[in-house]
Amino acid sequence: MSATIIDGKAFAARVRGQVAEHVQRLKDEHGITPGLAVVMVGEDPASQVYVRSKGKQTVEVGMNSYEHKLPIDTAEEDLLTLIKTLNADPAVHGILVQLPLPDHLNSDLVINTIDPAKDVDGFHISNVGLLGTGQKSMVPCTPLGCLMMLRDHHGSLSGLNAVIVGRSNIVGKPMAQLLLGDSCTVTIAHSRTRDLAEVCRRADILVAAVGRPEMVPGDWVKPGATVIDVGINRIERDGKTKLVGDVEFASAAQVAGAITPVPGGVGPMTIACLLANTLTAACRVNGLTEPQGLTA
Ligand code: NDP
User: Fold this and answer.
1) Which of 11, 201, 244, 293 has the fewest Cβ atoms within 10 angstroms?
2) Cα 211 to ligand 1 centroid, rounded to whole Å
3) Domain check: are 253 and 280 in the same one?
4) 254 given a catalytic annotation
5) Is 27 a catalytic residue?
6) Cα 283 to Cα 14: distance, rounded to the nearest angstrom
7) Are residues 261 and 216 located together in one domain of the fold?
8) Same domain, yes or no, for 128 and 158?
9) Residue 75 is part of which domain span?
10) pLDDT band for position 126 (50/70/90)?
């Protein structure tokens, strides 16, 4: 194996440490405790795990955590009323609605009801527009985590060829905007892309965000490239359940210069960036200096 392993778990621990320090300073110097409200509708097991983990880590960095668990048949009007209440609550600096929502709820309407200044997931249409026009915004957590790791590994990303496989609103598209903002030459590939292997081989930075286990083999990776594997796929192998990414780790690690593992790569950075975004939101609303290195 030749690639450097980018240790997202250790990186995320450092980010949480920085967040905790800033939170302490906010409390000591300004009497402000950042608060994150997480709203979950229904009892999707995977979402429950995430929400628990978010709540635990929020408290660990010294913030207040507010969990709102609503029944699966919650009426849209009731959910919107809760969001408006949280919008108006000065103790709440960040609001996250756990996705996916049950089918009877209009996710776009729900997300766009969140105050953009409290939209720590960065999914509100205003934040999407601000990011797309290079203005200060709340940045989606997963792509922000990827950007932090890339900047840390490369220093400057200027002029590098970046290929992102996947064009979702939560990962692929914002990742592309962020890399463009750092002056990469960006290609977004998707299910209709022709000769995907050849497109990937041009990448100095290859980000895989597809949701297909081990779809990207080592021979799609340019020698020395940095591979960021966003995928989280649960598979059965040798009678056991295993988590794998969208990249075939063993073969890609032979060729890449650096690679994120699954688990322990992008995943831990996502929650760390959620905490960073909540801190940023608390600073902005109070007119205080934002923490350096924790935003795009
Ligand atoms: P989506 O399903 O929303 O998007 C998947 C994208 O992959 C689509 O743009 C789709 O193209 C593209 N795609 C599908 N099949 C192919 C193919 N054969 N070749 C090329 N492109 C293809 O997924 P998400 O963006 O939400 O998530 C992607 C992965 O990242 C998942 O495994 C998810 O679990 C993981 N994830 C991990 C997070 C973390 O914290 N680490 C956070 C969020 C997601 P098209 O648009 O043409 O259909």
Assistant:
1) 293
2) 5
3) no
4) no
5) no
6) 20
7) yes
8) no
9) 30-135+269-285
10) very high
Q: What spacing in Å lies between the alpha carbon of 289 and ligand 1's midpoint?
A: 35
Q: How many domains does the chain have?
A: 2
> Does residue 1 belong to any structural domain of this protein?
no
Residue nearest to atom 24 of ligand 1 (CA): 168
Instruction: Verify whether residue 48 is a known catalytic residue.
Output: no
Strand ranges inside the chain, DSSP E: 4-5, 35-41, 64-70, 94-97, 161-165, 185-189, 205-208, 226-229, 233-237, 240-244, 258-259
Q: What would the pLDDT profile of 153-196 be if each residue is shown by its tens digit?
A: 999 999 999 999 999 999 999 999 999 999 999 999 999 999 99
Taking the CA of residue 165 as reference, the ligand 1 atom at the shortest distance is 21
The active-site residue out of 118, 119, 121, 204 is: 121
Percent of the chain surpassing pLDDT 90: 96
Ligand 1 neighbours by CB, cut-off 6 Å: 142, 165-168, 170-172, 189-193, 196, 209-212, 230-233, 266-267, 270
Among 137, 131, 158, CA closest to 277: 137
Predicted model pTM: 0.97
The string of pLDDT tens digits covering residues 63-79 is: 999 999 999 999 999 99
Rounded CA separation 276/146 (Å): 14
Using the predicted structure, report yes or no on whether residue 46 has a pLDDT greater than 90. Answer: no
Q: Name the token pair of 18.
A: 């920085």
Cα three-residue angle 198-203-209, rounded to 5 degrees: 90
187-217 pLDDT tens trace: 999 999 999 999 999 999 999 999 999 999 9
